[in-house]
Specification:
The complex is a heterodimer of chains A (373) and B (259). By secondary structure, chain A is an alpha/beta fold. Chain A is built from twelve helices and five strands. Chain A has two domains: 92 residues, STAS domain (Transcription Regulator spoIIAA, 2-Layer Sandwich); 251 residues, no CATH class. The longest helix of chain A is centred in the middle third of the chain and has 40 residues. Chain B is α/β, with parallel strands linked by helices and 259 residues long. Helices cover 41% and strands 25% of the residues of chain B. In chain B, strand 7, helix 6 and strand 8 form a beta-alpha-beta unit. The mean pLDDT of chain B is 86. Classes of the chains: A alpha/beta (373), B alpha/beta (259).
Chain lengths: 373, 259
């Protein structure tokens, strides 16, 4: 920035600083750096403003703070000359410079770490509490609606069944089909080495029917629909639509949560069944193509596997549906005033529901193992 | 200062239409350096569209807009950017970035355009925050933690971040209680005087018009039908203008101002 800065002179009676050129926001960074290096000596400093071409608030802030530093260092500091408009601006800055509250004292790093751990723990506990109370709220409304079923929002439920169920069929079918192919291929390679390739069918039945069909479905639905629940409800919360519902006497749980939850409860088992069929289809086609296990043999072999493989898988579907719907809706209600909060809560909802689905799946494995099915 | 007759904004023959709906048709307007100009008009007469056209958020169908003598329709990107740094805009609800604190919001243009950071940025933003009458600790707060009036002040602080020459205000007192609105009027007047601002204000608030505006421009029939002082408005013969400036609210506002 040409011609923005200051000159200095020292004489017997004291130090003189002459700001010159344009002291504006475009040049204050350099001026500030230079003037901080200046160490005036002597009993007094005269700041002569006559050469100052222009001054804005940023320039005035720099000048004000420089003079304040010198005064604190025990120098008598005064402004000499200058245009009236510049002096006005300097006065304005001086009048508005209130001392900021001192920053909180620096904590020991170890204390800071402990504090963060504590705060995170407290936040997690609080969140668990609100989630449990949300579950309670939903259960209460479920019983209320069960006694007055005509008040249930059937249209909304059908809409959500289309969104979460029908529209999810292509992606779930494709993914399950491919997983079936991959499972069959991996199994075939291993089992063929000791001539037991026919057991590929059992491997497929156990892995897809018991685990992969329903688990993949739940994970895809959590990513597709759980996130949508959070974003939809979160955006409504953000724009005070939920508050509007409340004051209009509409229970937000009835209007928003129950249709979504019941819709998912109905569609997720169907989706899981569809995933099972597609997975077995993919596996069966691969067996036919690479292992010469014909469809007849495949179906024969499949029909002697225990039916409980099939049941254990589908029993889990409604549980996963409830987890995904509850977590998705709950996080939606947690959205606060900031725009980024919708995004953060959506991420959180997907991560949490997938995590909970896997935890519950593990619990089911233990349970089925104990009861021996 | 306010008597200088150099127009900083010249709008000539402005035409704006959205689909079949014509909002402006041959609108002319001058804004002079150092004045506070209030734009009034009924709902849907395109007050905000006019503001958005001048600041470049809305591309007019025809007409020229000159700011500081530069035809904005023909300005290069660099020229436009240079001019954009000489004005500040306060949107109706502040339009603060919700993920940043007030101080960070105010610092955005300074950091973005001049790369100033650290202690100096803190000092400049702290000054702007107190300059618009917010308590010093408001700088650390997020927009969602502020009241509507404080959000407007914070928005004004951001609009003033680069010491603009022109400030555009879109309904600055809408949604404020009368005390808050009066305080905001005073603030605008005071800042205008202290910083030598030119203020272009869209408003509905008769008290604001009386308390702060040097001149008033009335939008009706797709153009500016009259500009002048409040007294000129009182004398002007047009059904809408008469209803607006002679209505019960106008009389009440005048009575308060006369006290």
């Amino acid at each position: 920035m040409p011609g923005a800065g200051f000159t200095q002179a020292e004489s017997a009676e004291g130090f003189r600083v002459r700001p010159e050129g344009r002291w504006t926001v475009a040049s204050v960074a350099e001026i500030n750096a230079a003037i901080r290096r200046l160490k005036p000596r002597g009993p007094k400093v005269d700041v002569e403003l006559d050469d100052l071409e222009s001054l804005d608030t940023a320039g005035a802030v720099v000048l004000y703070h420089a003079m304040r530093r010198w005064r604190k260092a025990g120098l008598a500091c005064q402004v000499v000359g200058g245009r009236e408009s510049h002096l006005d601006l300097l006065r304005l800055v001086t009048a508005n410079e209130k001392d900021l509250a001192p920053p909180p004292p620096e904590r020991h790093p170890a204390v800071a770490v402990l504090e963060r751990i504590g705060a995170a723990t407290a936040a997690a506990a609080e969140e668990a509490r609100t989630f449990v109370s949300f579950i309670g709220l939903v259960v209460e409304r479920v019983f209320r609606i069960a006694s007055t079923p005509w008040r249930f929002r059937w249209t909304a439920m059908v809409h959500h069944m289309e969104q979460t169920g029908l529209n999810a069929l292509p992606i779930i079918g494709l993914v399950s089909f491919l997983i079936g192919v991959v499972m069959a291929y991996q199994g075939a390679v291993q089992l063929r080495s000791f001539g037991a390739q026919i057991y590929t069918v059992d491997l497929l039945a156990v892995s897809i029917l018991r685990e992969f069909g329903v688990l993949l479905t739940a994970i895809i639905v959590a990513g597709r629909s759980g996130s949508a629940f959070t974003a939809e409800i979160g955006a409504m919360k953000f724009r005070e639509e939920i508050d509007a519902m409340r004051v209009l006497g509409i229970n937000p749980v009835d209007a928003l949560v129950l249709p979504r939850m019941i819709a998912l409860l109905l569609t997720l088992p169907v989706l899981a069944f569809f995933a099972n069929v597609m997975g077995l289809l993919g596996g069966g086609l691969l067996c036919w193509a690479t292992l010469d296990i014909s469809p007849d043999v495949f179906i024969d072999r499949l029909s002697v596997t225990k039916p409980w493989h099939y049941y254990t898988g589908l029993i889990k579907a409604p549980c996963f549906a409830i987890i995904i719907a509850l977590v998705g809706c709950h996080e939606g209600f947690q959205v606060s005033g900031r725009a980024e909060s919708v995004g953060r809560m959506t991420t959180k909802s997907v991560v949490e529901s997938i995590f909970l689905v896997i935890i519950v799946d593990a619990g089911f494995s233990i349970l089925f193992n104990v009861v021996g099915v | 200062m306010s008597s200088a007759s150099e127009p900083v904004i010249r709008v000539r023959g402005l035409v704006n239409r959205f689909g079949a709906q014509i909002v402006h048709d041959g609108l002319d307007l001058d804004v002079y350096r150092g004045e506070v100009l209030g734009i009034v008009g009924g709902s849907g007469t395109g007050k905000s569209v006019l503001l958005r056209s001048i600041v470049g958020l809305n591309r007019p169908a025809a007409g020229t807009i000159e700011v500081f003598g530069q035809d904005m329709g023909r300005a290069s990107a660099a020229q436009r950017e240079a001019i954009e740094q000489r004005w500040g805009v306060l949107f109706q609800d502040g339009a603060l970035f919700s993920s940043m604190t007030v101080a960070e919001n105010v610092g955005v243009p300074i950091r973005e355009h001049y790369g100033i950071s650290g202690g100096l940025l803190d000092k400049i933003t702290a000054l702007k925050v107190t300059l618009v009458g917010l308590p010093p600790d408001a700088g650390k707060k997020y927009p969602s933690e502020l009241s509507g009036g404080m959000r407007k002040r914070a928005g004004l602080a951001r609009a003033l971040a680069l010491d603009p020459e022109i400030v555009f205000l879109d309904e600055p007192t809408a949604g404020l209680d009368p005390i808050g609105a009066a305080a905001f009027d005073n603030l605008i007047r005071e800042l205008q005087r202290n910083l030598g601002l030119t203020v272009f204000m869209v408003t509905h608030d008769l008290d604001t018009l009386i308390a702060t505006c040097d001149r008033i421009a009335v939008l009706a029939e797709r153009k500016v039908i009259v500009t002048g002082t409040y007294q000129d408005m009182m004398a002007f013969d047009h059904p809408w203008v008469r209803e607006y400036f002679h209505g019960p609210r106008a009389r009440a506002a005048l009575a308060t101002a006369a006290e």
